[in-house]
Every structure is written in structure tokens, then in C-alpha cells.
Amino acid sequence: MTDSLISSAYTQALEVIGAVEPRIADATRQELADQRGSLKLIASENYASPAVLLTMGTWFSDKYAEGTVGHRFYAGCQNVDTVESLAAEHARELFGAPYAYVQPHSGIDANLVAFWSILANRVESPYLQKMQAKNVNELTEADWETLRGELGNQRLLGMSLDAGGHLTHGFRPNISGKMFHQQQYGTDPETGLLDYDAVAAKAREFKPLVLVAGYSAYPRRVNFAKMREIADEVGAVLMVDMAHFAGLVAGKVFTGEEDPVPFAHITTTTTHKSLRGPRGGMVLAQEEFAADVDRGCPMVLGGPLSHVMAAKAVAFAEARQSSFQAYAQQIADNAQSLADGFLKRDARLVTGGTDNHLVLLDVSGFGLTGRQAESALLDAGVVTNRNSIPADPNGAWYTSGIRLGTPALTTRGFGHDEFDTVAELIVDVLSNTEAGTTKAGGPSKASYALADGVADRTKAASGELLDKHPLYPGLVLG
Ligand code: DSN
To answer: In the prediction, which pLDDT does 298 show?
Structure first.
């Protein structure tokens, strides 16, 4: 697609939108300017291609298509069938999966589909059929108690949030911690690394129905063959949430025992992180779970977003090109450069480094909470998110960490030198930020003071990098 075609497509689209609600057209233009002008280091974000973005803005948005390909609850779904079949076919080929379900709207939805499928597949319960037809958000504590009892009090073991797991991996307040009795595994307190023997010991003792592997803030690779061995030993289903690193699997950076798809009974993902597709979710499964996963909609999901499924197909087609493998390798190389950049400047990283797409910077050495660090960095045009570190004394709200990922800036063309400079800029900002005090004069976990001039010099330095690697270089809005 030529630059002028993309420019004119967006210019004209914004004119059409602006004629109805100019403030939305303005906000859309501003969002592009903001994304172009800041260092985006949020590990779960990326920049989708114009082809993926354009695919989402069509009349497929107007079609209801509950059900599955060839088996819909609405008439007139022949073109949605084409779209969904193509997206699933690309996904199966890309990941070598026997079965792909491309309807989930998000990662949480994909995980919910996986949980209900595992229960439906492994537990005989007429009550489950009844519950599957209900809106889970309306269930009370008493309903959950009854549900857990009716399902034989099934158990789930997942990685804890502060060790890098996700809310949906059995965090007690999340639905995953309500439908199952849950326990969590952490990481080694000394090394911060996953301790497979400790996971196995916990699994032997707890005997979960579901063992969840995968993470959203763990800066290391996981051996999924070992996780499967543990699951098999205790008769558990292995579910892997690869949302963060799906792009590294698709791009063949994670192969062999680091590729979850051959080892997991069910693999879930989002499609918009390192995979660089539209915002959405997906479930990959071994054949034995296919029929249960297929009932995701309408059992636990609303009608599929056909325009997003179309964009998933386009993104997966992109990820099947050899250039995506080079991109994925560069994501991992860049994370290494970023980690090295911090370590040589004496900053502390959880686990001492990275071998995936993210680093977790412990900001307590700068005398800051994650919240203070996140805010000071944002003032300097560096977009990150605060994150708990293992056994975090500041909890999940203020935190002691900053999570930084390389997928987005790698899309812009950043390489080793640029990421070394990014580490230098971040260390400069944090070294020049002081924690504030509360009104009562005690230490504050939120307020901070960034020294004069630091934000300006950071923006000037990052501006040079961003100008060298423009976002959507040929896109000029008229
Ligand atoms: N929100 C995603 C992330 O940032 O990791 C996970 O849900």
C-alpha cells in the first residue's frame, strides 16, 4: 500500500467523522500526535499496521454472528463465515495448532472461554450447563459457593500477580479465583526465577484440575515441557496464557520447549501485544477441547466482533511473513540491550535481566514507588506502567516496579543503540526525582518532584530518537 493511499484514506475518514462529531476527529488526530511524540514502553502495547487498522473500520461491525462458522443464530453470515474461517486458518498455520477460536474480544474473555471449556470437558455437571447460560457478572457469592460445590470444588493453580502472573490466573478477587478454589505459585525469593520443583511440589499437594502457566510481568522464558510434565503427573489440564509473548512464538523466537502450543491442552492469547494485531483475544486448543471451546459464544461471550476477526486474519497473514520473524528476534535483542543499559548504570532488575520482551525495573533503589516513577517518567514523555515486584512492600497500587517492554518501539525501528539511550534517559529521570511528603509531613507514595530541566532535556533527547524512527512514516494527515 502506498503512503499516499494511506494518507488519503485517513484524511478522508477523519473528514467524514469530523462532519458528525469534530471533537472525536480532533481527539483521533491528537492521539496520533501523542503516540508519535512519546517513548511507548508499555510491554503490552504495540502499533498495528495501517492494513490491520483499516480492516477494523468497515461494515462487518454491523453484523451479528453468534454461533460458529456454518452454525449461526442469525441469517446472512456467509461473509462473516469467510472472515472467521480465514482468521482461524491463519492462526492454526501460524502457531501449528490443531484448532483456533478467534472470537474472544479480549484476553480475559479468552481465558474465561478456556475455563468453562475445561470444566465442561472434564466435569460431569448438569448444573454447569445451567450456569453457562447465565451472565457471570450477576452471580452472587452464594451462587459461586454453590457453583464450586456443584462442580466438585475444582481447583486452579496459577502464578501469583506479584510474581508476574495475571489477574485471571487465579487471583482471588478475579472470576478465576471465584469459580475455582485457587492457589498460587511464586518465584524463587533469591533469584526471582520460576522454580519448577516448587511448582511441582505445590501441584502434588493441591492437585489442581487446571495448572495455568504464562505471565504478564515475568521477564524470563518458561519451559512448557516441564509445566506439562507437572500437569500430567497430577492429572491437571495445562492452560497457557501466552498473551504477552505470542509474537515471540509466532516469530519463532520461542521454539521447542519454550513454545507452549504443542505442550498446552489449551493456549490463550490476546492479539494486540507482541503479535501486533487488532485488540482482541484467541484460544488455541488440542482437538479434545475444540467442541467445548467452540461454544464460547453464546455461552460466555457476546456476539463476535466480525470487523476485528477480519483484522485478526490480516494481522496473522502479516505474522506469517518472514519479516515478522526478524521483527520478533529484534524485540528480544532490544530487551537485552535495554536490560544491559540499566545494569551498566547500576539499576536493579527483577531476576537480574531478561530473555523475553520485557524488563521489570525495581525503582526502590531510587527511593521511589512505582507510582512516583511512572508519573515522573510520563512528565518526561516516557510512557510506562508501574508494576508490583515479588513480595512488593507497596502493594499492587503504588508498587515498587516499572515494567518496560520493547515491542512497540521495535516496530518503529529502534535497535541496540536507541534502547541503550532509553535506559540512560530513564535512569537520568529517576535519579533526578525525589519522593514527596504527605500533608502531615510523612513520606508520600504518590507525590514526587522532578528536578527542573530534566523533563525538557529528556524530551529533546527522545525527540531525536523518535524523529529518526517515525511512526507510520508515510502517513500525512491533510
Ligand atoms: N493489560 C495487560 C497487560 O498490560 O499486561 C494484561 O491484561
So the answer is: 84
